[in-house]
Amino acid sequence: VQLQASGGGLVQAGGSLRLSCTASGDTFSRYAMAWFRQAPGMKREFVAAISQRGEPIYADSGKGRFTISRDNAKNTEYLQMNSLKPEDTGVYYCAANFIVRTSLAYDYWGQGTLVTVSS
After folding, report:
1. What is the mean pLDDT of residues 88-102?
2. What does 46-81 look like in DSSP terms, one character per residue?
3. What residues contact residue 53 under an 8 Å CB cut-off, 6+ apart?
4. How far apart are CA 65 and CA 58, in angstroms?
5. Which of 19, 26, 43, 118 is most exposed, with the fewest beta carbons within 10 Å of its own?
């Protein structure tokens, strides 16, 4: 499966962004989907995941502010990010796997989309 992430940009602290990740090449509903992010000089970290049945998992950093969702008819997953903070800045990557995980062990990755939150 191929993944294409989009929706990043520059936003002020307190603002919102919605990231999208569109899949192609295979049946989207077969995959658990996730978002990870990587800040400059930092390791890539888990943000959120959603199972094939639509059950979400969140890292503590995004609980109450981020919402992950998926639309199987559109082959797309989303990450709605509200109340953004400067520490949310980074490149956001979408990922797909047959098993939902919070680790980096995903088989397929998108190219990343940059989110910059100014203070």
Report:
1. 97
2. EEEEE-TT--EEE-GGGTTTEEEEEEGGGTEEEEEE
3. none
4. 10
5. 43
